[in-house]
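[agent] plan:
  1. take the single chain provided in the ticket
  2. run structure prediction with default settings
  3. attach structure tokens to the ticket
  4. add a short note for the reviewer (M.T.)
[agent] executing step 1
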Amino acid sequence: MKNILILGAGTAGTMMANKLYKNLNKDLWRITIIDKDEAHYYQPGFLFIPFGIYKPEDVVKPKRKFLPEGVDFRINEAAKIKAESNLVIMQDGSMIPYDILIIATGTTPVPEETEGLKDKLWYTDIFDFYTYEGTTRLAKKLETWQGGNLVINLAETIIKCPVAPLEFTFLADAYFTEKGIRDKVNITYVTPLSGAFTKPKTTALLNNLMAEKKINVVPDFYLQRVDNDRKVLISYDEHEVPFDLLISVPVNKGDQVVEASKMGDEDGLNFIPTDKHTLQSKKRENIFVIGDATNLPTSKAGSVAHFEAEILLENILSYINGQPLEAKFDGHANCFIETGYGKGTLIDFNYDTEPLPGKFPFAGFGPMGLLKVNRANHLGKLAFRWIYWHMLLTGKKLPVSTNMSMAGKITE
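[agent] step 2 finished; step 3 output follows
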């Protein structure tokens, strides 16, 4: 019997285990999936916990619940991939051979990469919200915080869910307004980008929203260090931004097993060089990479992992059958952006086409609006949590095209 080994039982790894289990001959193929902990977190929900919209228990369930019984799920951690021998060495010293390896190890915030970020103010006046511990601790902080300089800072541009810091900023504006202390809170968004986002039409919309909500944007700020005593961010060109409460999006890096196996790209962030269309490793034909572990020039987001999984299933089946890898991922990303007060916007784009205005998912009808701020988009974001637990993780087909469609988009 041959073995498909999946490293990582997060969103991408769990989807692939389900899709492969349904499509492979179970007499010929064994599927093994490895992860270091039992809990599966609905990470898009981390955004809502500090503002009391979700409770911590809304975003966590056991990983085993979403994996077929016939899949061999093991709690362990990969230490090193020996690609020349088709083996993975685990932290406990055991070795697992594979015929096909899928790397879905994701990305993790690493505050230690920035001087002073994880120092004496960490989890007292400096918080992240991309981790379960960070977002739950921040929720307690906001319950009693009475105002001051609130700064949201991106330490890097290559981060998980690039729109989440913007959503946090808009939700903070609404939260403090509804709490009656918005006039005591100065909100500043500090980013290494030249505007609120990377795509021109989206950036124009988001910059206008920032101005309407009286949120100060500090662009082109490359964080070098954090001075805990003076409570200031300091850039490489010695520009300073003071804070009373700092919400940090630290440097993101791929898993340590990528570094230990010398499989990362030249940026040193442990993301794996991956064919951007076939999702095959650029170095080994029997290794495939999916989700945040890749170095693809698209968003690191759950929607991207979902679209990639559809393509990767086709290509792994082709690989097994000795056929060319003809399924092509186009970089499709689809992201809701919460804008506060029960409204949101939506962007849909790929490698070649920036987010455009229009209707989604049905041309002419919607009901969701692309680059439009409305309530339908907010309700779509909230509904996604049910879709995630009940359809997406278990590999069910969703009514959204895998490759980006131009139907409903306005191109002028």
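[agent] step 4 note for reviewer: The longest strand covers residues 333-340.
[agent] ticket updated
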